[in-house]
Amino acid sequence: MSTGDMLFGRRTRQNHALEHATVTLLSQALPSLNASARSNARGFIIFADLDPDDVRSASAEALGRLQGGEAELAIHPNCGTNLAVGLSAAMAGSLFALTALRPRTRIVTMAAGSLMGMTVARPVGTLMQRYITTLADVADVRIQSVRRRRFFGRWVIEVVTESDAG
Fold this sequence. Notes:
Blueprint: H1 3-8, H2 10-29, E1 36-40, E2 43-47, H3 52-67, H4 80-97, H5 103-133, E3 141-151, E4 154-163
Antiparallel strand pairs: 1-2, 2-4, 3-4
């Protein structure tokens, strides 16, 4: 069992990879797409008012391409992992700044911590995606259903997956 599987679970990581690949393909087809998405062990939800047939087609293509070895589709530049890494680094820098005795040193250290967070967010977030939060090995994954539904007054698309592995 990998570190990523222990932290997030194999199915969630696979669905996260499929979510990224699907959103990437949808974004290419619909350049003005404004969406966010969340994955779990059952599949993923795209928070956007989309045609379920478009999502079904994009997710089927995404799954096929991931199964065909296009692992880079599992990595997305706007993933929340990048944001979490950047905020964590900035917070660590800010907490460290609080240990400084002089106010000017605190301010400079906080600014440096924020800059560090912005600087490391994407490269470290990409590594975290690659090895911890996504899993591009989706050989055993199938798309079970794609449906549009209301979620707290907004339209969302739910993609449910299944796997031979459970």
